Each structure stands twice: as C-alpha cells, then as structure tokens.
Amino acid sequence: MTSHEIRRHFLDFFHSKQHLIVQSAPLVAKNDPTLMFNNSGMAQFKDFFLGNGTPPARRVADTQKCLRVSGKHNDLEDVGFDTYHHTMFEMLGNWSFGDYFKKEAITWAWELLTDVYQLPKDRLYVSVFQGDEKDGVPFDQEAFDLWKPIVGEDRIIYGNKKDNFWEMGDTGPCGPCSEIHVDLRSPEEVASTPGKNLVNADHPQVVEIWNLVFMQFNRKADSSLEPLPARHVDTGMGFERLCMAIQQKKSNYDTDVFSGTIKVIEELAGRKYEAGTGMSDVAMRVIADHIRAVSFAISDGLVPSNAKAGYVIRRILRRAIRYGYSYLNLAEPFMSKLVPTLADQFADVFPELNAQRDFVTTVIREEEISFLRTLGSGLGRLDQIISDLDGKGTKEIPGETVFELNDTFGFPADLTALIAREKGLTIDEAGFQKALKEQKTRSRKDATSSAGDWIDLAETDRVEFVGYDQPEAYAHIVKYRRIQNKQGTQVQVVLDKTPFYAESGGQIGDTGVLRLFAGSDEIGMLTVLDTKKENDLTIHIVEEVTGLDDLLTEADSVYAVINNARRGLISSNHSATHLLHSALREVLGKHVAQKGSYVGPDALRFDFSHFSKVTDEQLAEVERIVNEKIRENIKLDEKRNVPIGQAKELGATALFGEKYGDFVRVITFDPTYSVELCGGTHVPATGHIGLFKFTGEGSVSTGIRRIEGKTSAGAEALVNEQMAVVSELKDLLKAPKDVVKAVQALLDERSSLQKQVDALQNEKVQQLKNQLLDKIESMNGTAGPSHSRLVERVDVPSADALKQLAYDLKAKVDNLALVLGADINGKPQLAVMLPDSLIQSRNLNAGQVIKELAKNIKGGGGGQPFFATAGGTDLSGLDAALAQGKELLS
Ligand code: ATP
Ligand code: MG
Q: Which run of H or of E encompasses 176?
C-alpha cells in the first residue's frame, strides 16, 4: 500500500463513519499565545474543547501538518539519530466534539488498523491509564473493559500520568488516554524478548503509532479537576510511522514518504544511504526530514529570520546545511534542490507547496548561500580560538566560547565539538549548557505570562461579531479574567456580541468604550485599549479601574462603542492594501503574493514576494493605478458565508498560511480588478480612501519586499507637509517660477564662489609666506649645527591653511625651526615644525614641544617628531605660547 493510499483510506474510513473531512490548518499557529506552531491535530480545534465556538460538525477527521521543534513538544535533537521522530510530520486524527466517546473511538481504531490496514493483531499493544491517587483520578476501567475483549488482557499495558494522561495546558480540558503500539521486529527477536517489555522503552521498532485521548475533565487554576459537561475524543496517529508499519519497514525513512527525497540526496552527495547509524546516514535522514519542515513552513507564510518562528525555521535549515557540510561534503547549496521532489509528491495533499515552489526554492537557496558563508567565517574564528588555546597550553574550549560560536555564528555545539576533536581538543560541555540555560531563563522570563481563571457571568454558546455593520451594540458580559504578562496586569473581557474588531489578518484591533448598565442606570464606563483574538474568542482588553470586579458583576448589560473615526482610517488603509495588491500584480507580475501586512489608523504596510527592488517608475505606476481606482469610487461588494469552492471559482485571492473555514467572506472591488478572501473591515466605496501615497519601499528578507504608504487624512497630511516645505523654500528664494531650477542655480553659484574664495585665500597665503620669509632668523648654534628660526603670529583662515603654510615654508628654507600661532575664528591654534638637525642634536620632538606650548592656550595636541599642531580655548595665551616657543628654539 503506498503512502497516498494509506492516507486516503484513513480519510475514507472516517468519512464512512459520518465524519466531516477538513483541511489541515497551516503549520504556523495563529491567534494562540501558547503556541508557535501547530504541534498536534487538535490544535486547530482547541476552541471547541474550550467551549468557545461551535465545530463545523460533531465528528471531524483530517491529516494535520505538525511541527515539534519548540515548546512542550521538541523532538529536534532526536531527528536523524532515531528513525521515527520527525520535525514536521502528518498527524492523522479523528474527533468527537461531545458526540461519541471511548467505545466508538476504540473499536474504530482497531477496525481500521486490523481490517483496513491488515496489521497483524499479535503485534499490537494498547495502554490504559492506571490512575493517579494524588490527582484523585481513578484507573480508566471503561477503556480497560472495552479493550479487554478486543486484544486480551495480556496485551494491555498500564500507563502512568506522564504517558497516559493528557492535558491541554496548566489549565483546561484533560483526560486519560489509550495508546496503540506496534512491534515491527523480526520473528526471531520477538521470540527472544516479548514486545510488551519494550513498549515505551525507546525501541526503534516497538513504537507508539496512535494516541486516543478521552477528554472528560477540566483542570482549574487551583489545579483541581471538575468533570466536563460534554466529553470529547481527540486522536492522533503518526502517518509516517503508520506507513512504516504497513509497508513493513524498519524505519520511517525506508517508506515511500521519504524514498524520493533520499534518492535525490544520494545523487547530490554521490553516496548511498545505508540506513545505518553512521554519521553520513544520520545526515541524510536529517536532510530528508528538515527539508520538509522548512519547505512547508515557508509555503505557509514563514521566512527564515532572526526572531520567533522565523528563527526556528532558520535553525532547522542551518542544522540540515551543516550536517550536509560536515558529513556529506556538501559545500554548495543543496537543500533548495530537494524542493521540486517534495512539491510534486505533495501536490494533491498540501498544494500550497507546489503553488509556490519557485518562491520556496529561492528563499531556501539564498539562505543556504549566506549560511555557507557564515560557516566559512565561523570555521575561521574557530581556528583562531584553537590556536589561542595552544598558546595557553589548555586543551579545552571554554563553554562561553562554544556558546558565542553557537549564538553569533549559528555554530552548533556538536559541530564545534567535532572540529575540536579532530584537532585533539575537547569542549567544556557543562559550561556551554550553563550558558545556554542562562539564556533560556532570560528569554523565558521575558515571555512568561500567567492567566487567572475566567470568571463566568453569563452563559453563551457563541460570540457574535456585529462590527461589519454597526459601530455600537448592546451586549452582555460573558466572562472576564486578569492575566499577568510583561506589560503587567491585563483585564480581559468577553461579550456575547461585539462591534469591536479583534486584531487579525494584519488589521489592528479596535479601541473604544464599554458603558456599563444595571437596569437603566449607567454605573460606569471602561476604556477598551485593544481587542485581540485568542483562538476564536474576541477579547476586549480594558483598563483596570478601582472596583472593577463589582462593576462587571453588577452590570447586567453593556453598550459597546468603538472609536469609529479611528476605525474609518483603518478601513481606508485596509481597502487600499487590496487595491495595492492588485496593482502590484498588474505592474510586477502574477508571482506577487501577499506575505504579511499591517493595517492601522496611521499607515499601511504591505509585504509581498518579489525578488528585486521595485523601481521608482514601477512605484509611480502602482500609485497611479491605486489612485485611479480610488477615483473610480468602486462600490464595495461584500459577500459573507460564501462556500470556499465558490469563492475560489470567483478567482478570489487567498493567502498562503491562512486558515479558511468552509465558508468565507469575499471582498470585491470590481470583479475584474480585486477579489480577496478577507475578514477585515473596508470602506463602502473606494472614493472614501481619498488619496494613496507611498512613503517607502524596501527589502524585509530574501525574496520579500515591503511597501509603506498612507491614505485618506494621513496621505493629505503628508502632502500638506511636503507642500509646506516647498512653499517655505519659495519664500526663501523670493518666489521663483521654478523652485528646483532656483535651488540648482544657488548650488552652482555657491560652488563657483567657493572656487573664488579658495583662489583668493591661496593668494593671501602666498603673500603671507613671502612676508614671513623675510622674518626668518639665522641661529648659530653654540653647541651644535646652526638652524633657521621663525616664530610668528599669522593671519590664516583655517587650521589646514596654517599647516599648509608651515609645510610650504619648510620646503623653501633649510633647517627651519618654526612656531606659528593663529587666531582661527576666535580659537587659538599652534603649529610646530622642527628640522632633523635639532631633533637629533637637542633630542627635541615637535609633539612634546607643542604639548608644552599648548598649556598656554589651555589646549592640547600632538603629531610627529618633526611636525605637530595644537588647538586651544584661551586665545589670550597665544602670545605667551609664541614667546615660549621662541625661547625653546633659540
Ligand atoms: P513519542 O512518545 O513517540 O514521542 P508522543 O507521545 O509525543 O510520541 P503524541 O503527542 O501522543 O505522541 O502524538 C500522537 C502520535 O503522533 C504518536 O502516537 C506518534 O505516532 C506521532 N508522533 C508524535 N511525535 C512524532 C514525531 N516527532 N514524529 C513523527 N511522529 C510523531
Ligand atoms: Mg513525543
């Protein structure tokens, strides 16, 4: 059975059990402060378990792209070394939202594995939760009783809280689970050790394939448990492991999920993959695994960067590059060459990769080129460190150095260790771990937040957003809580109905007020500082006031009012990004895809894929088109609840990496110009935008450009500012016809005047020089060779001119010892020149002489033995300095 068939059978099987088959959510988690990446199938359904929304059906199944490289689930360091943990993998899952429970979940799992997939029954083991006294949770008798007739008691394992009790987080839904494990060893091995002994013992061929979670409790903030009113099922099966079991392989990498990629790696590296434990095989597995994580993350909208999720992707990519570099001698970009194979393989399952194959390839390639360069300079730095150590006679690279290499060059500790080993050195592993831990604690401190329990005030099954149609609404408070984060305490309020738009899709959240009523009395007003989404819940962040708890509990209704003027500006900017998007595609080409945006009241920002600078002409053309569309005053055509298939037929632009439901909202400004899937707020007709002006264009990262602009009042203010500058210039220039010409004329005039000034000054210096030549005294040395002396106060315009004068005189007069002083714009300046004869015979040094003289003018300076200069602050001491100079050089 091919992996494609295996996936298909899973979905068909649950479809036949009345499950709705849904799309995988993107890899990157959105609107979930606790999660960077989707790391399990249930992540996209969290809200339904929390009771914050209604699922599209009570039974759902899918295959979900998961990434386990950060947070609670981090398998990164195992990947490549073992054969069954991946960074990115597919999790097949079926769910019951308050529908069926343990009985169906268990019997269906067994039916699928043994009937459909024909896995041998005597190679399967299951676990049930043994209970935990401290937590007050009993043994999962129900699951045991269901499994016993199916597998027999001796195939059941009793699992502890760590393995068999699932919790969403510190608080929230939780419950016991049953895992299914498979034993893939040879009959001889099975005969010598029973598989049961190897379950959960990290044996590569006795692995967990499926986890069935039965959510039946809710954990509260004080850590006590209460039964959930509606019980749910959440299952997750590792697709690649399942393929290994069905295809009777010993490793996930031997299945057809990976064989295509490994073949290309073999060709690039010029050696065979031998499925062993040697480092070249590890490297091939690392590469085959990581290219999937990186490619799918980029096709879901991420780009490698220096922060957050983008940084995680960068690290995964770099890990693969340097395994290739160190163990397969791959010193040229190679990861990007694997993208086409993946794109083809997954074209039907996750088409977003195929749709962006060129973009993904280029982004990876650029990143490879730059990291291979870093790798080169890191190796150089390491060589230097090693030779420094040689000098010190130690054989251990300090932990902090290892950390620095890791942190600044992206040089992992094991690579440093490897190179060190080759040179007969070791690394201070403990010291490195310590430095790493310190950094982690620092970053964790920044990120920690803690949430109090929700205080429920009213029952509701859904929260209604009315903000597309009205800026104000009567509502009830559903619940509120306080959370602690970096900014301090934040009060979060949930309403059953709200006109407040919660930040998403680049558009920032609304602000406004909540007026609180008890009966017909208005008892208070709360300022809404921001509106955010947590999963699908709209959260109003309100200002803390004294007596807040009483106010919220007493209020039986709320009049929620947004700042509508601000919203109008935001809507203008949002509609303008749609017009801009289409104009960019028209001018630059159809490869332009939105990669991010910011839509606020003040400005808009639009990031998109494009590989070169947008020229001034192109920008001007884009701006012209956008403004033309504004003047056409195109009416907004807003359609809600359009089936996704129909929206795609309309040619609506969807964003990669966005999660769309079965029904979407379509925003159209002229069906032949701009049709987008969008949840944001918009102007009723493009004329409301008034005017659009660019304020900037630049690069954000490889292959992604950013355009910034302003609309409406913001654009007007911008234009007014610029016009004010021009009109001031006109005033200054006495109202010329053409300002630019007038400024150019001024500049020309200035440069010709400068030339005249230079010439005049030069002439003056020449005259001065001639006068000075007459003042040179001949000094007949009593105890050495004779020299000429000149000590004078002169009139020159600059320190440079003084220096020039000194040099000119030296060129004219042999053995000249000179001290010149000048008043340069009110500041004293000195120059001292000495002939070699004096330097030698009297052991003088111009630098020292000038230091001495500069004391008179409260200044300092220095230079070479034959020439030095000094500036000072006390002009009245200049003559004294000259007198002292005269003395010294007699
Ligand atoms: P393990 O103990 O093997 O790491 P887990 O307990 O972390 O597994 P779950 O969180 O229960 O696994 O995930 C459900 C299923 O997803 C597992 O039964 C397994 O088949 C699969 N799975 C989990 N982690 C990975 C991974 N890193 N790579 C591939 N498949 C995985
Ligand atoms: Mg795990």
A: strand 172-183
Q: Would you state the pLDDT for residue 375? A: 82
Residue range 152-181, pLDDT digits in tens: 999 999 999 999 999 887 888 899 999 999
Tokens of residue 689, six digits: 């935008």
Ligand 1 near 292 CB (within 6 A): no
> H helices of 39-113, where?
46-50, 102-111
Degrees to nearest 5, angle at CA 47 with 46 and 50: 90
Tell me how far the alpha carbon of residue 378 is from its chain's centroid.
23
Question: Token digits for 684?
Answer: 């009723």
Ligand nearest to the CA of 89: 1
Q: Determine whether the shortest distance from the Cβ of 86 to ligand 1 is under 6 A.
A: yes
Task: Give tens-digit pLDDT for 366-392.
Answer: 999 988 888 877 878 888 888 888 777
Which two three-digit tokens encode residue 785? 């060779």
Q: Mark 253-288 as b/e (b = at least 16 C-beta within 10 Å).
A: bbbebbeebbebbeebbeeebebeeebbbbbbbbbb
Query: What distance in Å separates the CA atoms of residue 562 and residue 500, rounded to the nearest whole number?
Result: 6
CA of 74 to the centre of ligand 1 (A): 11
Mutate to test the pocket of ligand 1, among 211, 233, 257 (most ligand atoms within 8 A of CB): 211
Compute how many other C-beta atoms are within 10 angstroms of the C-beta atom of residue 853.
27
Residue 240: CB within 6 Å of ligand 1?
Answer: yes
- Which residue pairs from 657-663 have beta carbons closer than 8 angstroms and sit at least 24 positions apart in sequence? 657/26, 657/27, 657/28, 657/299, 657/300, 657/301, 657/302, 657/352, 658/26, 658/30, 658/301, 658/505, 659/25, 659/26, 659/30, 659/44, 660/23, 661/56, 662/22, 662/56
Number of the ligand closest to the Cα of 84 = 1
What are the phi and psi torsion angles at 128 (to 5°)?
A: -130, 155
- Distance (Å, whole) CA 790 – CA 889: 9
> In the 8-state DSSP scheme, what is residue 741?
H
Strands of 728-803 (E only): list them. Answer: 777-779, 787-794
Determine if ligand 1 sits within 6 Å of the CB of residue 232.
no
Rounded to whole angstroms, the Cα distance separating 597 from 565 reads: 21
What 3-state DSSP class applies to 72?
coil
**pTM for this entry:** 0.75
Q: What is the pLDDT of residues 538-594, one digit of tens each?
A: 999 999 998 999 999 999 999 999 999 999 999 999 999 999 999 999 999 999 999
Q: How far away, in angstroms, is 90 Cα from ligand 1 center?
A: 10
Distance separating alpha carbons of residues 120 and 226, to the nearest angstrom: 39
| Minimum CA distance residue for ligand 1 atom 23 | 238
Q: Tell me which of 91, 205, 207, 240 to substitute to probe ligand 1's pocket, judged by most ligand atoms within 8 Å of the beta carbon.
A: 91
Q: Which of 3, 35, 63, 208 to mutate to test the pocket of ligand 1 (most atoms within 8 A of CB)?
A: 208
Rounded to the nearest 10 degrees, how much is the dihedral formed by the CA atoms of 583, 588, 594, 595? -150
85 CB near ligand 1 (under 6 Å):
yes
HEC states along 478-543? EEEEEEEECCEEEEEEEECEECCCCCECCECCCCEEEEEEECCEEEEEEEEEEEEEECCEEEEEEC
